[in-house]
Sequence to fold (391 residues):
Amino acid sequence: MNALWRLPLVGLLFLLAACQPQQAAPPPPPPQVTVSQPVVREVVEWDEFTGRLEAVESVDVRARVSGYLQAVHFADGEMVKKGALLFVIDPRPYQAELNRAKAALEQAIAQYKRTRKDYARAQQLIKMRAISQEEFDTRASDQRQAEEAVQAARAAVDAARLNVEFTQVRAPISGRISRQYVTVGNLINGGTGDSTLLTRIVTLDPIYAYFQMDERSYLKYTQLWRNGTRPGYRQANVPVSLGLANETAFPHRGHLDFIDNRLDPTTGTMTGRAIFANPDLALMPGLFARLRLPASAPYEALLIPDQAVGTDQTQRFVYVVNDQNTVEYCKVVPGPLIDGLRVIRDGLSPEAWVIVNGVQRARPGFKVEPQRQAIRPEPAPATSETAAAQP
Fold:
C-alpha cells in the first residue's frame, strides 16, 4: 500500500515543479566594434597609366662604305663615348683611290698652270694683233676648263678622303652599345638603303617613358587647366612618378615633357611622354613601367580604411556610431585610394566615429560596444609625399 501511495505523490510533485514560472534568459551583450574618426589631411589625386621606356637617342650603326670587316674595337654591351672607334673596314682600296685622286689633282694643277701662262701670253699678243681673236678665245676657254678641272680633282680627293675616313666606323653618340651583329671577315655593304647593320647604341640618361592617355583623362586635365586649378600640361613641368614591374611604389621622379597633337581615332588615346633622370642606369629601354600623374590640385580630404565602405546596390555607405552607441547608416560618395585609405568626398563629417572593424556585426538601429582607435595610414614613399606637396 505504501508503494502504491507514493507513486501518485511523486507525479504530483513533478506537475507542481513544471507549473513554476521559468526565469527569462539575459539578452546577449552588444557586439564589439572598432571605430575611428576620419583622417583629415591635404592630398593630391593621381591617375595611373602603363607605358614603356625608350631611349632619348637610339642609333643603328651602319657602314657608309663597302668592304671586308677588318677589326672590332669594343666589348659587347659596354658603355661607349661619342667618337669612339667601333669597327674598321679594310681601307686599302679606298686609300688607293685617294692616292689616284691626289695624282689626278696634281695633273690638273699642272695643266691649269700651263693654260694660265698661255692665256697671259695671249692677252699680250692680242693687243699687238699678233694672234687672231679666235685663237685668243680658245686659250681663254682652255684656261677656264683647266681651272674647273682642278676644282673637280679637288672634290674627288675630298670624296676619296671621306671614304678612307668612313672605313673607321665611330660611335655617333654616347651610350650603351649592343653586341656586334657582324664578325670580322664578313663583307660589309655600305652607303645604300640596305646597308649592313653593324650594331646599335642607345642613350640611358635621361630616358623617356611613353604612355597612352585615354580621352576622358585628357578632357579632365584640360578642364583643370581651364578652371585654373592646375597649370597647362603643355606649359608646365608636371611631376610624374614611375614604378617598374618589381616595384610596388613609384620611386622614380620625372616630369611630363610632351603631349601629342591629336587623339588616335582608332584607339581613342593620346600619346604622352615623360622624361626621367637615370644616373644609376637602373631604367632600360623596353622595360614596362607604371606612371602616375597628378589628377587634381592639393585639397583637404577625409580618409578612412577602404574596408569600412560598404555597397548597397548602387549606393556606397558607412556605419557610424552616435553618442548612444547606436549604429547609423550613412550614405557617402567615395573617391580614390590614397596611401591605402579611401577618400570620402561627401556624406561624412570629420567628427563622426566610423566602424572600421566589425562592420559585419553591426546593424542600423542596434547597440554596439565601440572601441575607439586612431587610423594609421600606410606609410607612403617619400617620393609620393614630395610629389603630393607640389602644386
Remarks:
- Residues 47-56+204-294 form a domain with the Elongation Factor Tu (Ef-tu); domain 3 fold (CATH 2.40.30.170).
- The CA atoms of residues 65 and 190 lie 4 Å apart.
- The first strand starts at residue 32 and ends at 36.
- Residues 380-391 have pLDDT under 50 and may be disordered.
